[in-house]
Structure formats: structure tokens, C-alpha cells
Design brief:
The chain is of the alpha/beta class. It is 44% helix and 17% strand.
Length: 261
């Protein structure tokens, strides 16, 4: 079992919902955290709550420079990277093509920009954070876990062709990374997994219109949204349990998985 006491987490999207909950849970268990986010004000508010065991770093995960600087900052300030949690993510929902009900002709399409932005942040951004942090972990002889965040959307949700595609990628990356680290005799040192939440009570979900939210909750067997702290606890438990590697772990309150029409 790995000990969180004194261990260092790098968390992107760290001032919001699940990322912030992870930082809090990690620190409660004796860890230290670098929380990175594009939202400066939210980072300052998070720092107030998290206190001395947290450092903040303003970062746009879509750029190589920011990710390289983030990983270097974690090593310089904290001396190690043990948990990498690239949790920065967005949604930009919409149907790929929407035909008009009367004419049957397509009147709206998902804009390329709405597809690309989600790919840039949720996929390319994760790749860059993971790559830069892994480099620093290897070069500085750090032991730990890369914990990606997939989603039940990885199985294919209507209205989320952009988001679902990125979350499906998050489910395969742990297998690729684990296999690569195995080839390089690193797999016992740096593990990689993904967690795949269902509907979690963060701004991303709570900002939906009430009707959509009611419909969603009606589909969850436990009758409520998953709490961000419950997802954070799962990530910390996986960190500690060194037998867990290369897999995606769902946490969704009993949701029936599969594509929703
Ligand atoms: N909320 C859910 O139901 C749910 C379910 C499954 C997976 N997830 C995933 O969990 C992760 C966190 O989601 P959340 O619900 O906490 O969202 P959130 O909106 O509460 O937090 C996301 C954070 O990412 C930051 N961010 C956005 N773009 C960024 C960028 N370019 N660079 C750096 N930071 C950026 C935001 O400022 C925000 O603080 C996301 O990857 C999301 O897809 C969420």
C-alpha cells in the first residue's frame, strides 16, 4: 500500500468540482497538492480553503509550455510528483446534425469550434499534463499514480459526440500507458488508471436546466447525484492500492450503462 502522508498531487481543474474535492481529500489524508487551473480567481478561493499544504498554478492545459512549467513547478516547490490528476475538462453539448422537424432538412450542425475545444482541453490537454508530469516523475525517481478521469459518457451519450469521444479515449489511455511503462520496467513505479464517474454534483452538472437535471436524477438508482468527495475518495483509495493498474473504475450510483438515446 502507498502512503499519502507527505505525497504530492498535481491536479488540473483543481479549483473546481471534482479536482478541488480531490485536493481537499488528499490533503486531509496528509498529502500536499499543486492545484492548476485556468481560472485565477477560483484558484485563489481554493487556496484559502486548502491552506498551506496547497500551491496554486495558473495554467491552460491546452499548451505545452504551461504543462511543462506546471510539472517543473511541482518538482521545484514540492520536491516530487506522486499523483497526477489531469481533471480539467469541459462540455459543449449539441447534436452532430439537427434536422428541422417540419422540412426534415438539416438546419443546425455542431460547430467545428465546439468539437475542437472539447478535444483540445479534455484529450490533448490531458495528454500534455500526463506526458510532462510523467517525464518529471521518471527523471526524479518518483513513485505513484496517474489517475485520468473518464465518464459514463465514454459509452456514448447522445448530444456529446465531442465529450464522449474524449472520455472513451480516457478509458484506453491507462492500458496504453501501463503497457508502455511495463516495457520500460516502470510499471511497478508509476501506475495509470482512470475513474469514470456518472453524474456528479459539480457546476458542470448543476448548471444544466432543472428539467434535464430532474430527468438525470430519475435514472440514478441511488436517487441522487454522486458527491465530488465520493469520486475523490475513490481516487485516493486507488492511489494507495498498488494492485490497481491499467483499468477504468466506474462510480455512478448504479446507473445502467450503455448508450442513451
Ligand atoms: N461532473 C460530472 O458529472 C462528471 C462526470 C464524469 C466525468 N467528469 C469529469 O471530471 C472532470 C472535472 O469535472 P467537474 O465536474 O469537476 O467540472 P468543473 O467544471 O467543476 O471543473 C473543471 C475545472 O477545469 C478548469 N478548466 C477548464 N478549462 C481549462 C483549461 N483549458 N486549463 C486549465 N483548467 C481548465 C475549470 O476552470 C474548472 O475549474 C472533467 O474532466 C469532467 O469531464 C465530470
Amino acid at each position: 500500500m502507498l502512503n499519502i502522508e507527505g505525497a504530492v498531487a498535481v491536479i488540473t481543474g483543481g479549483s473546481g468540482g471534482i479536482g478541488m474535492a480531490l485536493a481537499q481529500t488528499w490533503i486531509n489524508r496528509g498529502g500536499r497538492a499543486v492545484i492548476a487551473d485556468i481560472n485565477k480567481e477560483a484558484l485563489a478561493r481554493a487556496k484559502e480553503v486548502l491552506g498551506d499544504q496547497a500551491e496554486t498554478f495558473v495554467c491552460n492545459v491546452t499548451t505545452e509550455e504551461d504543462n511543462a512549467a506546471l510539472a517543473a513547478f511541482a518538482i521545484e516547490k514540492m520536491g516530487a510528483i506522486n499523483l497526477v490528476a489531469p481533471f480539467a475538462g469541459i462540455i459543449k453539448d449539441g447534436m452532430m446534425v439537427s434536422p428541422d422537424r417540419e422540412t426534415g432538412k438539416v438546419t443546425r450542425k455542431m460547430a467545428l469550434g465546439d468539437f475542437q475545444l472539447v478535444i483540445d482541453i479534455n484529450l490533448t490537454g490531458v495528454f500534455l499534463t500526463m506526458r510532462e508530469c510523467a517525464e518529471q516523475m521518471i527523471n526524479n525517481n518518483c513513485k505513484g499514480l496517474i489517475c485520468l478521469v473518464s465518464s459514463t459518457g465514454s459509452l456514448g451519450t447522445a448530444g456529446q459526440i465531442n465529450y464522449s469521444s474524449t472520455k472513451a479515449a480516457m478509458s484506453v489511455m491507462p492500458k496504453v500507458v501501463t503497457a508502455e511503462f511495463f516495457r520500460r520496467n516502470l510499471a511497478d513505479k508509476i501506475r495509470c488508471v482512470a475513474i469514470a464517474p456518472g453524474y456528479v454534483g459539480t457546476d458542470m452538472v448543476k448548471n444544466m436546466n432543472q428539467k434535464a437535471l430532474d430527468r438525470i436524477i430519475g435514472e440514478v438508482p441511488i436517487g441522487r447525484l454522486v458527491e465530488p468527495e465520493e469520486v475523490a475518495t475513490l481516487a485516493c483509495d486507488i492511489y494507495q492500492n498498488e494492485a490497481l493498474a491499467g483499468e477504468t473504475f466506474f462510480i455512478h450510483g448504479g446507473l445502467r450503462l450503455g448508450s442513451r438515446g
